[in-house]
Every structure is written in structure tokens, then in C-alpha cells.
Amino acid sequence: MTPRFLAVVVCLVAVNGSFAEDWLRFRGTDGTGVTDTAAPIEWSDESNIAWKSALPGPGASSPIVVGSQIFLTCYSGYGSNVEEPGERSQLECETMCLDRTSGEILWRQAIPAADAERNYEGFIQQHGYSSATPCSDGEHVYAFFGSSGVVAYDLLGQQLWHVSVGTKTHGFGSGASPILHGDLLIVNASIESGRLIALNKQTGVEVWSVEEAKRCWGTPLIVQTESGDEELVLNVDSQMKGFDPETGEVLWTCEAIPDYVCPSVVARNGIVYGIGGRKSHCVAVKTGGRGDVTETHRLFDLEVGSNVPSPVLVGNNLFWVNQGGQFFCVDVEKAELVTRERTKVGKTYASMMSAGGKLYVVSRQDGAFVFEASPELTQVAHNVIESDDSIFNGTPVFHGGQLFLRSDQFLYCIGEK
């Protein structure tokens, strides 16, 4: 089936490039989840919402911002209702473009879901068929839908290519988001084929692939080493690995989390921090090594972590809230746990973010919480949109002094109009 336009593009402007502050991938353009930009702290149904836009289907992905446009994915045709999921043959994977100022949906494109996709049951019901956040180079947008493939569009919605990176599935579904590096689109296809894959971003043709992505749902990260070189880092079952992003060559491996890994890594000053595993670990590894660097480059391995949400690094503090709402803070200079505290956040899939010195945590059903970025865990605000009783799985996005937040029903622009 050929993807189809579901709306007419009208009044699109500023499509020939992105602005410096644009949000071009999962957890910000550098993938760290941290921005110095101040963002709204309080909002509700009655206050501080510039606009909300009804979405054509649910999803767990986050929006990205490219100039005057917002791009977001969802799924439709099947699986939006637990009692009556519909026919799986009708499942479609959608990419849409919204006007950043008004929230108007400018275009929608859909690809049919692969026959291999799982039925809407078990863990699939927790986040559905659209968990990967798209990415953009300012001229194109790239979306990943697990076994249904990777698809590229120009900013006007014209499909450029659509390729498969594997047809295997898992009871947890897919979750890793694609990233860009130069002319390469890099995809963690651990679930679909057990591979880390680089595609030519113009054509979708495979440039390299390595069978080194074992049981991991995290998004890869490009990290600059102390010497200025760039490495591609991915946390997989039992190991953290560094790759040459141009060729896929494995540069180093380090013993890490002895379990499957969902959270994405963060990095600063050539040091990568990863959390994950059901028994929970927090590992720090210095990049730039070669071969097995466990004894030489692993800085610490603490028995605390998170099974789903990813962390943020603010100052010397590595913060996260795990999937059950428990708050953690590790001082990375001292390599020690500073804070472990139960909160009222509740069940959480979205990753913690930091904006303007505040920590933002979005729970699935209990609203969004704002804390000071300090080990004392001072709560600043608890924001609930009472009119929306759907699930909030998407990680928030900050752009131009506003906050963009998606639920299964709406995309919200929070802040002044």
C-alpha cells in the first residue's frame, strides 16, 4: 500500500532549514535530555495551555520541532481500545506534521503495519505501536516503526523511502529512536534483527550493520571522547559498547548491566552513564578505549537503576525516576548514591528531562511533576490536566520557552501563546 495524504498542506513556511534551538531527536538534539532554556512550571486545563491538538491515534513517541513545524508519530486503525481493539489488518503507522504556532495538523502520512506486528495484548497495551521518536536533519523527517520499518519524508510530507530493518517482534514491542550522524541514519534494530544499522539518509540503502545489539531498547548516542573523536555508544545486555559511527566497527566493550536494557545512555566530557536492568545498575564508562575496557575505563558500577525511564546529568548529579516513581540521585564525582526516595509520581515510562535548572517528570496517569535539580528533591509543582484521562507516555520537549507534551489523545503546547 502506498502511503496517502490525509490532509492538504496549507501555508507552510520556513521549511528550508532548521533553527539553532530546534529539537531534532529524542531528548533534544544532543540526546542528553538537558536544556538551559527556561520552561513553564505550572499548567492545568484552565491555565497556561497555548493550544491542544486532537491526535488521530495514540503513541508513546515524543514530538520534534523543526522551524515552524512539529513532527509526531502515532498509530491508528487498531489497538486504541482495550475492549474493542479492532482488526490488526487495519493497523497503520502514521507520521504527521503540525503547525507550531496553532497546533493545526498540516499533513498526515501512513504506512501499513507489517504482518509480523504483535496483537494488542500484554505489554503492547502499555505503549502500542509507535514508541520511537522521529528525527530530522532540517530537510527531512525519519520515523521508525519497529518491524513495520523505517520511513523518510520531506518536510512537505512526500515519502522518500521506506525500508525494513528486520521483521522479528517482542512481547515488549519496540522502543529505540533513530538518530542522525552526518549522512547516516542510525537505527537500533535489536528487537527486529539483533543489529545496529546505519542507512544512507538520502536513499535508505544500508551502509553498514553489526550484530552487536543484544536485548536493548535504548536509543544510541554519539559521544565525543577526551581526544575529540566521535564514538557511537549503546548499552546492551551485559555490556556497554563503543562503535566507529562511520563503519560500525566495535572499538571497545565494557562489562555493564547483566540484563536487558531499556534506558538510553547520557554522556559528558567523554564519560558515558547508563542505567537499567531488573536488578538495577548504574554504570559509568570513560570512552576512547580499545578492546575490553572493563578494568581500565569503567569508573563505577552501583546497584541502583531504572528499568524503563532514562536519566539526566545536571552538574555532578545523575538524576532519574524509575518506572515505579522512585527518585534517585547519584553523585558521579563521588560515585555514590545520594538520594533514594519514594515519590507520588506513580508509574512512569517517560524519561526525566531538565530545563532551566528544573527536573520534569511525566507520569502515565498521575500528572506531570516539577522538582528542583538538587538531591533534596524539592517539589515545585504538580500539574494535572483533568480533562484528559488518557495515558501520557511521551517524554516532554522544550522549545522557545514552551513545553510540548503528548498524551494518547492530544498534543499540548504549554506556555504563553
What does this structure look like?
With 417 residues, this protein is mostly beta strands. It has a single domain, classed as Methylamine Dehydrogenase, Chain H (7 Propeller), CATH 2.130.10.10. It is built from three helices and 34 strands. The protein has a five-stranded mixed sheet with strand order 1-28-29-30-31, with no helix packed on it. The longest helix is centred in the N-terminal third of the chain and has 4 residues, at 124-127. The protein starts with 33 loop residues before the first strand and ends with a strand. The relative contact order is 0.14.
Structural key phrases:
single chain; 3% helix; 417 residues; Methylamine Dehydrogenase, Chain H; mainly beta
Radius of gyration: 20 Å
CATH superfamily: YVTN repeat-like/Quinoprotein amine dehydrogenase
Strand order in the largest sheet: 1-28-29-30-31
* Low-pLDDT segments, ≥5 res: 1-18
Query: What's the architecture in CATH terms?
Result: 7 Propeller
What is the third-level CATH name, the topology? Methylamine Dehydrogenase, Chain H
Q: Sheet bearing the most strands, described?
A: 5 strands, mixed
Portion in beta strands: 35-45%
Q: Give the number of domains.
A: 1
The residue fraction in helices comes out at under 10%
CATH class term: Mainly Beta
C-alpha geometry: globular
